[in-house]
Amino acid sequence: MIKVLFFIHDLSGGGAEKVLVNLVNNMDKTRFKITLLTMFNKGVNKQYLNKDVEYKYIFNWSFRGNQHLLKLFPPDFLYRKMVPGNYDIVISYMQGATTRIVSGNKNNKIKKINWIHNEMSKKKLVHSYRNYKEFVECYQSFDATVFVAKSAKDIFEANTNLNNNNIVKYNTIEADQIIAKSYEKIDNVQLNKNQLNLITIGSLTHQKGYDRLLRIICKLVKDNLRFHLYILGEGPLRKQLVDYINKQNLSNYVTLLGYKNNPYKFLRFADLFVCSSYHEGYSTVVTESLIVGTPVITTLCSGMEEMLGCNNEYGLIVNNNEDDLYKGLLRMIKDDNLRNHYKEKAIERSKYFNTDNTVKSVEDLFIDLLKDKKE
Q: Distances from the Cα of 189 to the Cαs of 83, 192, 255, 260, 272, in angstroms?
């Protein structure tokens, strides 16, 4: 039995947390004993963990300034204090503090993996480290670094010139469950099918670009178009977004629905999914949109061309700026034929996302790394 530990900040409502739960739930428990360790005991995705996955946490609640506090201690000290137990493989599943901590493992018999989910600039990479030199030392201690998209890998290598067994493994998506949940009835929310319904889903953070999306909505309102945008998710920018909606009199055009346990039924109801992100890794929700057959328009971020094609075969990709996103949205709202075309292409592309294949790819990686150890 191969003992594997996944270490992540928490199990909140983000895409990385969701796909981690998908991955560990679907791994072969006859071959792998899985432990999931979180820095903080919180997150809506904790409820979806299968009982055959051992769950542990370090702190019962989060506290402000924890990243700065952790940098006061060397990685090997933090590893000894925070990661008890004996494992064959230890994985930091999210770039940041957990990566620095896992790098502190000095036992060469334990394989270490670093998982990166986003387009990372040098500044972002160094944020959890004392300096760039420490980041490089920590990175070089890993046996492999996994990226969720080739474009994320390319950006990392261009920014750092580092390539120490950098590989790509796509996110695990439970397609069958998503499709089943998408047919559940929508209660307690009044949705109007007699207008064009746009949807976007994600944490209310700067990364998701909701500030520029709302500015675009203002322009589309002036174009006298009939539509409504639903935003699913929670986060620190909620008040700022609500204030902007009220100030610009957008309440008839935009609704913040908050976090939903089942976003898929809303996603399937919508006529168009909008990704306005400034950066991504490999967008879970764009994948989910394709699975339920909802057309996609997105800014050009890491992973989008891998999902939608370099020539917009399966969805419309626009340059990552406000003006091009506005023009693309205007085009998609006005052109019924274009939306119908991308709906058909989304259904076609959905066959690409196979749970068994993505899980087996990760399992094979673990086995190969342990073969290297034996050799």
A: 44, 10, 10, 11, 18
The reported pTM is 0.83
| Chain CA centroid to CA 217, Å | 25
> What is the structure's pLDDT at 351?
84
Q: Which of 185, 181, 191 is nearest to 18 (CA)?
A: 181
Give residue 127's pLDDT band: very low, low, confident or very high (50, 70, 90).
confident
Residue at token pair 């919508």: 270
